[in-house]
């Protein structure tokens, strides 16, 4: 009898010890259901995203976001919390493509829980997304100005003589006159020298 009591007591202690580690894990919140569902392929774009969790949500610490394939946030309302359920309303229609739902909530013990999943919109009636057209390069504003400047320069060149050419033509006659005067002066000096030499020879001959 005594042995059975001890055995029952030990079994109760072991059971309690086994249940203790599971208590913190059970206190953590977790996603139970999502609409649209994980990896869903929809033929019509949703207007809301609703997430239901294991525990009640704190509106002050509940975040639900929707992002497109380019990781750009889709405009949505703030999460509307009702017990363990959070819902966001999508502001505009979603085009075809893959979207990611991200969430962040808080458990009863204050531990934050976050996660994400994807769904795809494949509406056969929706037009295929067109690639954005590359903008044409705008005309350089300096091109017309350059053409006008070139035309103005050509007109000035055709209507007026070159200033440097005019100066060269004006400088020609004075230079020629100076050169001629120098030659004439040399000839006069040479004639005087010859005359003096001749007179000197004639005087020697007379003596």
Q: Estimate percent helicity.
A: 40-55%
Biggest sheet character = 4 strands, antiparallel
**Mean pLDDT, all residues:** 75
Low-confidence stretches: 17-25, 160-173
In DSSP terms (H or I, runs of 4 or more residues), the helix count works out at 4
Please count the beta strands (DSSP E, at least 2 residues each).
8
The whole-angstrom Rg is 53 Å
Strand content: 15-25%
Beginning-to-end CA distance, first to last residue: 187 Å
Name the helix and strand elements from N-terminus to C-terminus, one letter apiece: HHEEEEEEEEHH
Return the structural class: alpha+beta
Strand order of the largest sheet: 1-3-6-5
CA-based shape: rod-shaped
How would you briefly describe this protein structure?
With 207 residues, this protein is of the alpha+beta class. The chain contains four helices and eight strands, in the order ααββββββββαα. A hairpin with a 5-residue loop joins β7 and β8.
Q: Which labels suit this protein?
A:
207 residues; alpha+beta; four-stranded antiparallel sheet; four-stranded mixed sheet; 4 helices; 8 strands; rod-shaped
Can you tell me about this structure?
This protein is an alpha+beta fold. Helix content is 42%, strand content 22%. It has helices at residues 2-19, 22-27, 142-159, 163-206, and strands spanning 31-35, 41-42, 48-53, 63-67, 80-82, 85-89, 97-106, 112-121. A four-stranded antiparallel beta sheet has the order 1-3-6-5, with no helix packed on it. Strands 2-8-7-4 form a four-stranded mixed beta sheet, with no helix packed on it. Strand 5 (80-82) and strand 6 (85-89) form a beta hairpin. The longest helix has 44 residues, at 163-206.
């Amino acid at each position: 009898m005594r042995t059975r009591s001890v055995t029952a007591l030990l079994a109760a202690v072991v059971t309690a010890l086994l249940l203790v580690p599971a208590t913190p894990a059970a206190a953590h919140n977790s996603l139970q259901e999502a609409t649209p569902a994980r990896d869903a392929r929809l033929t019509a774009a949703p207007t809301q995203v609703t997430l239901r969790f294991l525990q009640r949500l704190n509106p002050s610490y509940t975040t639900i976001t929707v992002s497109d394939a380019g990781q750009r946030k889709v405009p949505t309302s703030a999460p509307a919390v009702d017990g363990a359920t959070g819902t966001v309303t999508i502001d505009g229609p979603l085009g075809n493509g893959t979207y990611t739902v991200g969430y962040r909530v808080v458990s009863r013990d204050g531990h934050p829980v976050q996660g994400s999943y994807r769904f795809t919109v494949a509406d056969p009636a929706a037009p295929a997304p067109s690639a954005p057209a590359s903008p044409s390069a705008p005309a350089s504003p300096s091109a017309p100005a350059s053409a006008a400047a070139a035309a103005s320069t050509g007109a000035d060149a055709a209507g007026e003589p070159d200033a440097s050419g005019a100066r060269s033509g004006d400088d020609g006659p004075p230079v020629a006159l100076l050169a001629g005067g120098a030659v004439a002066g040399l000839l006069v000096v040479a004639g005087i020298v010859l005359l003096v030499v001749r007179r000197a020879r004639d005087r020697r001959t007379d003596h």
